[in-house]
Amino acid sequence: MRMITAAAAAFLAMPLAGPLVALPSAAEAASGPPMGWSSRGLGCSVSEAAVRQAADALAPLAPLGYRYVVIDGCWQAPQRSDGALAPDPGRFPGGIKALADHLHGKGLKLGLSLSAGTRACSGGGPGSYGYEAADARQAKEWGVDYVKYDWCSIPTTDFPGKNVQQIAEALYPPMRQALGDDVVFAMNNEDGSTVPWLWGKNARATTWRTNVYNRPIPDGYPSMVDIWETNQLRADHAGPGSWADPDLLQAGLGGMTATEYRTQFTLWAIGAAPLILQAAPDKAPPAIVANPKVIAVNQDRLGVHGTFVKSDGWYHVLAKPLENGDRAIVLFNESDRAATLSTRLGDARHRVEDLWTGAITSSEGELAAQVPAHAALMFRVSESREQAPPLVTFEVDPGELGADRPSVLEPGRTGEIVTRVTNTGATGRLRDLRVTLGVPEGWQAVARTPATTGRLDGGATFTVTWAVTPPANAARTTYELTASAAFAGGSQPGSAVVTVAQAPPSGRSHLSDVPWTAVKNHFGPVEKDTSNGERAAGDGRPITVEGVTYAKGLGAHAPAEIEYYTGGRCSAVAFMAGIDDEVGAAGSAGFEVWADGGRVAYSGLVTGTMPARAVTVSVQGARFVRLVATNGGDNATSDHVDFADATITCE
User: Fold this and answer.
1) Would you indicate the residue range of the signal peptide (predicted)?
2) Is the pTM for the entire model greater than 0.90?
3) 84 and 219 assigned to the same domain
């Protein structure tokens, strides 16, 4: 994890009891997407004490823009008091106004969730349907600065002949009008049928949700990317003062890696999305959420939602024009393997600042970098004659675009790893270039070609081939190789992830006895020689399909993928495909075999009322083989799939 910048560190070091931070004016607050923290992660355990504690932890981040403390449900009493909203006396004994005053004293602002329907979404409590003016007045009297307006318990029967979009267009504007423009209005009607991106700006919504289904963002990389891609489809509808909202930031929750959390923050920043933390503010990693230069891109007063320069589904280049004429550019590698991404900057000399590392380089027209798997790099680019070293692209184990897995080395056998240095910026010559490659303890790495050169002209590339040998007892897992390209006046680090794996032995082996290289499963782990069972590891039962029990096999829950390294030395895969009897007659799935990038076998639809179906297929020459189970088109809850008696035959 990279160190936090000095400016952000200074903000985080501010004492909580220090001078009060002046609140921005309404115009200033509306100049960029809202930033802050949401209580969603607390659910109905939220309380006045918990909110005050979160506010104390958020206060040091207020100078960076994190000002809104949003109570996301479960704050209301079950019923109105004399027709007015009231806080739950047990959870919020001091009342909402006192809490708002407390936050304002810390330079923070208060947000509350309300519902456009008859009841609140969480914790019971009344909705604002028919009480819009009264509830808006009450919220403003309390000092509420932000209203998250939910979409729950909607009385659709009161709107005969109107579809969901038309009902939403009738219910949301009255609350916005009653609140006035000094209060942030976050439309949380994430049901895709309300299509808020088509009319949210006209309704003067500060933010509007872009999900197409009514579910909060999960803390996982695939879901985060899916939500981001959906958000990008709404980019044309967003703009200054009316922002596309792909939901909360997950950094600090624990379900993703530091790289993946940094990617989410980068994508939300260039998309001019609200930056609202879900993790407790003291758990959100400051090296990610407190980078002032990335935040500055998000808050840029031009207010443009970054859009694609190019994208092929795995590799994305995005750009966002900035107020001073600069551009923010993001290189995002969605795939599971490092890849080199590039874009043209134009025919001029450019200053290129990496906003995550702080490195400043120059380029005559191209921006390129090796981007780790699941990573997003952000650069600020400006036309400038500023003297800076040329931009260097340092690739370690570069793969072909489209390769979606790390390179494989076999234990005890020598393989080749390539490093490649390119003088991409071409604004000067690199001198005395020396490349080194670091490997784990016990490994060997020897340069097969020269690892030094006296000069590297603009646009030229220097390649070194390395013989790399893992020890015979190396664990079958992934490893990181580190590298350095040092030259007169500078250096650049590099790295690559490789997998140590071994092809199955000669002859016929049960796949449950062979280590896999990658696995995905819908619920719980894939089990060896038992059914999937429930979600816990090791809770499966004997593999049984229509009364026939199998001693060997793999129990999974579709959709599932199980990948094996075969090294081009295996010839056939065979198994019996079935839905395990533990789910009765329920469940349906399709069973597939993939050899490298192509599907070579499909079972057809298999249901819980069918006997197991035999699948046998050639995988001759494949380096990787995957067993795949797909959902049969119904609810996936009962899709307990068995690859019964699964075997592989190798040379």
Assistant:
1) 1-22
2) no
3) yes
**Domain termination residue (choose one: 281, 300, 319):** 300
Q: Are residues 203 and 292 in the same domain?
A: yes
Give 627-648 pLDDT, tens digit per residue: 999 999 888 889 999 999 999 9
Rounded-to-integer distance, Cα 405 and Cα 243, Å = 36
pLDDT per residue as tens digits for the range 300-339: 999 999 999 999 989 999 999 999 999 999 999 999 899 9
Are 489 and 609 members of one domain?
no
> Are 546 and 497 members of one domain?
no
Extract the runs of DSSP E, i.e. beta strands, from 524-618.
527-528, 543-545, 548-550, 553-557, 560-565, 570-579, 588-595, 598-607, 613-618
Which pLDDT belongs to residue 215? 75
Domain boundary (502, 518, 547) is at 502
Identify the weakest region by mean pLDDT among 9-23, 70-84, 344-358.
9-23
Beta-carbon contacts of residue 150 (< 8 Å; ≥ 6 apart)? 73, 113, 114, 115, 116, 117, 120, 121, 188, 189
Same domain, 422 and 528: no
Domain housing 448: 392-502
Contact 255, 284 (CB under 8 A): no
Do 495 and 511 lie in one domain? The reply is no
Pair 633, 626: CB distance under 8 Å: no
Query: DSSP state, 106?
Result: T
Q: Respond yes or no on whether the N-terminal peptide bond of residue 559 is cis (omega within 30° of 0).
A: yes
Question: Are residues 432 and 285 part of one domain?
Answer: no
Number of structural domains (the chain) is: 3
pLDDT tens profile 142-165: 999 999 999 999 999 999 999 999
399: left (phi over 0), alpha (psi -120 to 50) or beta: beta
Kindly report the number of other CB atoms within 10 A of residue 569's CB atom. Answer: 16
CB-count burial class (<10 Å; 0-12, 13-18, 19+) for 52: middle
Rounded Cα gap, residues 634 and 647, in angstroms: 29
**Would the pLDDT of 221 be above 70?**
yes
Residue 19 inside a domain? The answer is no
* DSSP state, residue 572: E
Is residue 431 pLDDT above 80, yes or no?
Answer: yes
pLDDT at 14 over 50: no
Specify if 34 maps to a domain.
Answer: no
CB 150 within 8 A of CB 135: no
